[in-house]
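Q: Could you fold this chain for me?
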Amino acid sequence: MNNIKMPEALHEVFGETQSVVEIAGTALFATIGTLLIYFQLYRPIAQDSLWMIILGFILIADVLAGCIANFSRGTNQFYATRPKARLVFIAIHLHLLAIAWLLSAPLEYALMIWAYTIVSALIVNTLKGHPLQLFMAASLMCSGLFLLMLLPLPTWFLVTSVFFMIKVMFSFAVDHYQTEV
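A: Sure. Below is the predicted structure, expressed as structure tokens.
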């Protein structure tokens, strides 16, 4: 695979090295996914201002990009060797709350989804190196999907919440390539 050395400013996103295929796939998924959510699912509310919509969709693009990038070897290996950075990364993920506020989604449900996702990610993260880490992540992820199905969410926010959960609790909190580190 054709790996390239990443600039230091992008280490938190793509790790120290990353394949061209994974970079392109991440960018393509984030771009197409964001456009699909905006043009097919999102219906602005009258009070939403243009700057809030733009910022909200930049954050949605970040969620979608991270959902894919966190599965890559480069990103996984970068955080596998930096447990403190992994905890900080989980803790700073307030994206879903900001998206809800910026795009007028129900904040009480956003807070519930966010809290479930962060607590689940912390649980999964504590199981690093344990044979049940992947199983526990899948169990919590599937339970979270049931939670989402039971909430009366706008479709665009439901889709965004699914990818937020995958990004933080499953693609990031799991050490997918632990035998390689």
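A (continued): The two ends are 18 Å apart (CA to CA).
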